[in-house]
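The records we work with from here on pair a chain with its fold. These numbers are not coordinates but entries in a learned vocabulary of local backbone shapes. To see the layout at work, look at the sequence and tokens printed below.

. . .
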Amino acid sequence: AAERKRPLPLLPRRIGLVNGNDAAAKRDVLTAVTTRFPPANVLVAETYVQGPRAAGAVVEALHTLCREGVDVVVVARGGGSFEDLLPFSDERLVRAIADSPVPVVTAVGHEQDTPLCDLAADVRASTPSVAGRLVVPDLAQLLERLERSRAGLERGARRSLERERRQLDRTHERLRRAPRLHLERSRAR
């Protein structure tokens, strides 16, 4: 349900990655993450992603990463046959993803594959590389926005300082004329 979907954190301190041992999906996610945001901290949980033990193993890996304090989890597995991807439609895994305390991004199978875990996830990515790009901001864009913000703050501070300087000049001029005005009024009285 759309109302159950959580937004991904803008700047995750720690990213969890559940994938198979020595899998291409792992390399794809890590490459995408480190290319976009080199200082990213990724905690990898390698586990079974195929066969009868896979669903339970992925659930345990997801729970472990959440206990480790990750801000978002990517569950990634490359393509395979319908039977290879069945663990990702297992009810235990689907419920674990839906109940996860942190947002979950799934990248399981190919574009045309739709295991049930994709429906429970907060975000479904078409490939592991796309999942990696979704969970981190682009550092170059962040630095550009930061520079624009810094320049805007500097302009605002200069305008404010100039406004205050003009006010101070006016106040100074009034204070400078005050004794003379006081004397003139006293003479007039």
Remarks:
- The first strand starts at residue 15 and ends at 19.
